[in-house]
Amino acid sequence: MESEDSLQSLGWRPFFQSQVEPDSNLLPARVLNVHRGRVEIACERGHEVVELTGKSASMAIAVGDWVLLETEGPVIARLLDRFGVFQRRAAGTAGGIQLIAANVDTLFVVTSANRDFNVARLERYLAIAHDAGAFPVIVITKADTVDSVSDFVARASALSPGVLVEALDARSASDVEVLMPWCESGQTVALLGSSGVGKSTLVNTLTGDHQVTKAVREEDQRGRHTTTSRSMHRLAGGGWLVDTPGMRELQLVDVGGALDDVFAEVAALAGECRFLDCSHESEPGCAVQSAIAAGTLDAERLRRYRKLLLEDRRNTETVAERRSRDKNFGKMVKSVMAGKRKDKGAKH
Known about the structure:
By secondary structure, the protein is α/β, with parallel strands linked by helices. It has helices at 14-17, 119-131, 150-157, 173-176, 199-207, 258-262, 264-270, 287-294, 299-316, 319-347; strands at 27-35, 38-43, 46-51, 66-70, 75-79, 85-89, 97-102, 106-112, 135-141, 164-167, 188-192, 231-234, 240-243. It has three domains: 14-79, CATH 2.40.50.140; 88-243, Rossmann fold (3-Layer(aba) Sandwich), CATH 3.40.50.300; 263-316, Orthogonal Bundle (Ribonucleotide Reductase Protein R1, domain 1), CATH 1.10.40. The strands form three sheets. A six-stranded mixed sheet has the order 10-9-8-11-13-12, with helices on both faces. A five-stranded antiparallel sheet has the order 3-2-1-4-5, with no helix packed on it. Strands 6-7 form a two-stranded antiparallel ribbon. It is globular. The model is unreliable at 210-228 (pLDDT under 50).
């Protein structure tokens, strides 16, 4: 099927053009869907399915990536550098990195006006957005189910400086219209949110498609997974939307200084502490603890910041580093136990 998509409408920009040789005869294409062993792409000559064989089989390709195709085949010759990527630590003990989506301009962080609303989870999503260079917008769905959303909006707005928050009924086209400025031609948006918050309903309204949605369990207001894979959808305004499965586990990895962006007030206070290596516990001259004592900083906010810093540090370690650390810890334990047995023997 022929496509009227131009490279610009697909999200092509000078950042990608600068990576292509002037005399190259390779064809730029955007990855719309990733399957096992193949990808669906869009380019100026249409939509195609490309098998991942040979060199391309070893490429870590994500939805939203840009690739260069050989003119015949088609065969992926090269994966272009990204201006940003959403990633997380894969579930399990292997400690691998799972790519979520690449080259996203705006992240809709989706939660709902019920018991799913969780500030700690939203802080994680905001850290991921900042790390990937995407502009975060917190979208609170199911606004029609509560008498007032003002408390939800206030709590979400306080999580990061300048973060935008929109409360709406995801089924209402007029409500969802407020999100359209981020959905224009050439723009790419992604949705992140746990299961049952109305992500698929929001996708339906944004795209005009009709994905099957699943009811929220009344006893705990938690939903079941509807979307099972990551894919890109064309929006009515000409932009592209990356839908992702609901994520019950979102482990941060290699987010760098993004946490300082999300917890800007904590990071600013830490810079005022007397000691550079202040742990913000009991050291004298700790500006963070002074702010907590004065009631200008929530102690829970500091606790969550510390928790995410520790999680990111551990998850960012390479597998080799983790094994080395665990091995050294094991040696230390064995040495301590051997010393205790020796002391016990000497007493007898």
